[in-house]
Each structure stands twice: as structure tokens, then as C-alpha cells.
Amino acid sequence: MTHANLIGGEWIRGNDAVIDVNPSDTADVVGEYDRASAEQVDHALDAARQAFPAWARTTPQVRADLLDKVGTEILARRGELADLLAREEGKTLAEATGEVGRAAQIFKFFAAEALRVPGERLGSVRPGIDVEITREPIGVIGLITPWNFPIAIPAWKTAPALAYGNCVVLKPAELVPGSAWALADILHRAGLPAGVFNLVVGRGSVVGEKLVSDPRVDAVSFTGSVPTGRGILERAARRGAKVQLEMGGKNPLVVLADADMDTAVRVALDGAFFQTGQRCTASSRLIVEQAVEEKFIAGLTEAIRKQVVDDARKQGTTIGPVVDQSQLDQDLRYVDIGKQEGAKLALGGERLNREKSGFYMAPALFTGTRNDMRINREEIFGPVASVIAVKDYDEALAVANDTSFGLCSGIVTTSLKKAAHFRRNVETGMVMVNLPTAGVDYHVPFGGRKGSSYGPREQGRYAAEFYTQVKTAYVMQS
Ligand code: NDP
Questions:
Q1: Ligand 1 centroid vs 123 CA: distance in angstroms?
Q2: What predicted TM-score, i.e. pTM, was given to this entire model?
Q3: Are 28 and 6 within one domain?
Q4: Extended strands (E) in 124-272
């Protein structure tokens, strides 16, 4: 089945198509998704611009009802959408079901937020004047999304953009167009006016590039890798467009000697390896106090051995395949780099063969690593984690902060004092105590510091910072 792009309220066929392949079974084609041509992206941008004035003036009730309807349909079709997501991206069915549910909750949350767009009214410092501060939509927002959360990330960018009265042109990652297409179809059938939401599938270097450089796009929200994000920032800033970037992580999980070991192992296993380690919040650096290093490694290796790496949609699978050949090559390359750097590969790190031909990899754990090794400095984005032993809490905190990234961090401890100190002093946008570094709520801000993020936070009420602009009005009292 072929799938066209949604442009100006119509499904428009492209000249060529992306072949969406199942990473659990490369013989299985999920679907063909048309690429938008340069003229079609132009058309989408014109349509979004034309739709903007009327959409910006709709009542909050209209926007709330539409977004709520979208959330309701996603929830009602949760099983089917999760199957599509697991099939095109490779996360397990349970993980995919969670992600689809999350996308629905995000639409429902922002349906309600459309009713309470923030504003303020203050007295003036001058007599006889009122001051009113309002938040207005920005205009047309270009959304560029990665492959690792094929429906949740398009949802957490699209829902606030629409709730606050903006129009959207979405370019999903070419690897996973299916979930984004399904979302576009739901938005279209919910009755959004033509041009308010547009889907343009295509290469980042072509379609993405156009969204970043075209003056008809007022703001760009991007999630993906650091090099792509940096390039987008430079090009968008040159023309004065608003930019929000969510990029990589090299997230530390600190395990202290006083930790409950079962909690430490469970939290590390989840954070490092679930969703095949393909999360920007994954715990890739496991910073462990020497006193419990041996016990922790023994517990974690035992837990890893119990994992079932197989077809994402097969019952019993706990870790699905890597997303594609090039990501698998990258993961295996880093396993070699780790070995060459002198790290000890405790287990895993090899390609696995399963009944079907897919990109299967055994979760890899390195021990005896140093924080200055490349495997601990560069984002691998696969099922690979390293143990870094430290002598005490102070060294653990220093190592946690010794990185160019700052997305998320975690600590496993029974000491309230050390947990509180860590929360205050760790240089990340999000911090977890006795919880995995990955796994967040949708009604609170998401984002990082240092090289991980740029611009206002995503999600929750903080999304208004990016998707609105502020106006201050002075009014003479009559
Ligand atoms: P990219 O950063 O390359 O891609 C993210 C999105 O940006 C995709 O939609 C991509 O399009 C688009 N894009 C690519 N180049 C440009 C450009 N020049 N201008 C505008 N948009 C562009 O990440 P990938 O998906 O290719 O993955 C590469 C690596 O990035 C991974 O191995 C991983 O290490 C990391 N990554 C990190 C993520 C995170 O959340 N931290 C998420 C995903 C990846 P296209 O469809 O062509 O890919």
C-alpha cells in the first residue's frame, strides 16, 4: 500500500517513495511512503501560511475539541498503532503500546492546555494605565523528528503547536514514516482545517533542510543527533528563526555503596538496555562505588542474561532489534572501539541470528572503563553500557558531570542526604532518584543542559515558552 503526503488538506502523491522495512524481519515491508518533492514542500509551506490567520483566531474550545478527538482515536486504536510502531521501529510490543498511549495522553493534556493559554494583567508603574501580557501563536512551525519515538515525539511537538494556535509542517525520520502517517491521517479526519497540519516525508538533507532555511517557517523544533542539531541551529539562527533542539545524552547512573542492590540492577537494566538502548535518556555510563562494583556487575550480568532478544512483536521478547543496518554497524563499531581502548567486555556485543533476518544484537556491558574513553564520551545509541568504578560519592558526582552532555542523570542510594546533594549539584536537565534515567511524565518539562538541548523545554505547561510569543499591551484606563 502506498501513502501520500498531507498537504493543504489533501493527500498528494510523490514521485518516489521510502520503503519502510521491519528491523525484526527485513523481508517484511511495512509500507511505501511517498517522498514530498521540493515543490510539494513549497506547497505545504504556502498552505500552512494561508491557514494560519484563521487557525490562530479559533476559540480555545475548537482547538481543545479537535485535540481531544485525536487523543481519543489514538487510544481507541492503541493495539493496532502499537503493532505498526513495533513493526517499523523494533521496540517490543509492550514498549510500543506504552508509547502510543503516551501520544494519546499528550493530545488530551494539550487539549486542556488550549483552554488555559497563560496571560497576566498588572498595574502600571504610571497612573491610569493597565498592563496586559498575552501569549500569541508564532505562525508556522517546522517539526523535524527522529526515528526512536515514531509517534510520541511527533505528538509532543504537534499537540502544543496546534493547542497554542500555530500551523505545522512535520517531517518525520525517513526510517519510520508509518506512525507519523497514521497520526497525520487521524489529525486530518478529526477535522483540522486544510493546511493547519501538513505531513512531508523525505530526506533530512532535502525536506528538513528546506524547513530550516525557508523564511515561511517561523520556528523549528528538532529532536535528533548533536551534529544535525548544531547545523540546524546555525542555519536557523542566521535568518533569526526561533529554534528548539533536543539532542543526545551520555547519561550517568550513579550506584552508591548503600544502594539497595536489587533496585540498582533493575534501574540499570531498564535505563541502559530497554528499547534496545535507543533512547536519548538511556543510562550509558554506570558509575559505581568500588565497594559494590563486583556485586553490581554480577547482578547486572545475570539480569542481562535473562533478556530475550528477538522479534519485537513476538511474545516473550524483552529487547527488540536495533533499528537498521547502519545503527547496528555503529553499535558494533563502538564495541570494537571499547575493546581497543582497554575496556573489558563482560558480555554481549555481538550480532545475533534469529529465526527471521533482522538487526539483532546481544546487549553489551563493558567493565573496567574510564570516563575519558570514547565509549564514555560519545553517544552510541544502542544496547551498550559501561561500568566506571569510583572510590566515593564525590568522585561519582565529578565523573557524572564530566561530559559535554546534560540531559538526564540518576542515583541509586538509600541516603537522603546524598540523594539531595546529587539532585542539587548534577548538571543535567532531569534527575532521577532510585529510578531509571529513561521514562518520564508528559505533564512536566523535558530537556537538558550543555550539549544536549537548546532553547525552551518541551512538554507540560513549559511548552508554551517555545510555541507562543509574548505581547505586552499598555492600556489607558477610560
Ligand atoms: P539525525 O539527527 O540525522 O536525524 C534526526 C532528524 O533530522 C531526521 O528526521 C532526519 O531526517 C533529520 N535531518 C537529518 N539531516 C538534516 C538536515 N541537514 N537538516 C534538517 N533535518 C535533518 O539522526 P538519525 O536519525 O540519522 O540518527 C543518527 C544518530 O543520531 C543515531 O545513531 C543516534 O546516535 C543519534 N540520535 C539521537 C537521538 C536522540 O534523541 N538523542 C534520536 C535519534 C538519533 P532523515 O529522515 O533523513 O533521517
A1: 47
A2: 0.98
A3: yes
A4: 129-137, 140-144, 167-171, 197-199, 219-223, 242-246, 251-255
